[in-house]
Protein: Histidine--tRNA ligase
Organism: Rhodovulum steppense
Amino acid sequence: MASKAEILAQAERLHAFFRNAGADPVQAAILQPADTLLDLYGEDIRARAYVTADAARGEQMLRPDFTVPVVQMHMQAGGDPARYTYCGEVFRRQERDPNRPNEYIQVGYELFGGENPAEADAEVFALFSEVLSPLGLRAATGDIGLLLAAIGGLSTTPKRKAALRRHVWRPRRFRALLDRFGGRAPVPEARKRLLAEIEAKGVAAILDAAGPEIGLRSRADVAARLETLVQDAAEPPISPAEVELLDDMLSIRETCPNALAHLRDIAVDLPAIAPALDLLEARLEALEGQGIDVDLLDFEASYGRTTMEYYDGFVFGFYAETRPDLPPVASGGRYDALTRILGQGRAVPAVGGVIRPELVLALTREGGQ
């Protein structure tokens, strides 16, 4: 097992590579304000972060990653375009798997701004591909923006679309919602009983019988939720044809050119994805310009749906096929929407990624390099 000093030496090598590529080195405090992360991810973040409290600063979290604080820094003072690199510890709780480390080093590269998102995506991916090339890793790519565009093109209500978008990064919940909205799964018995009671008594009578308010939700919040359930129950299901198109899209796992051709066929019946496909095609051209053989590059339409929720476009990862037990050696993607949230309405294009230097070191030693 490598010592921390050896891992730090490997991290410095990777950090130097990104500095030499033109990135400015930056750092972020290990203790981060919890309110920002909670606003972004809700209470779910507590399951994977270490939380503490400070009498003067309030609730704090040990840094779960660098992207959020680097985005905050850039949106407050950075100019576009800008390239940053960083190196340091991140902390993740591992309640389900005690064998996985709860503290490890990340080295990252982030690109903000630029006039051509496809070129920026290709630049970042090509840098990671170059620095990791001695390891012979498999690269996987995807596009969360494509799935979001497909949801936006469904013939259903804005609330149902919002619910599907909200759970894109929770595949099981997404599938359950899609099956229910598409009429392929029965309405849960508890909901049936509640809807029957609302129809028989009315919302006001049910609330009156519920007694005093308890918890964080007000009576008005509960009433609004009940009305939403009634309205949703009256909506027709998403058409079987549209559900099948979405299923077809989510099942795509091919080389990039074949995936693009397949998706173009789907776009004939789901035209809302056409702009995202144009961006995908431009990205493949830009990747070729960076020396990447896109004919051998994998594209998985569902890729990136179990990682951090801020990715909303191009996503990528690098894996050791001989070590399926390892997490991704590197991963990253585009997160334009995050800059809008942290920039208080001002947004800039942004894409980046991170590398796990301890995995690079382990694979280098296994390969005798």
Observations:
- The chain has a mean pLDDT of 88.
- The domain at 1-137+356-369 is CATH 3.30.930.10 (BirA Bifunctional Protein; domain 2).
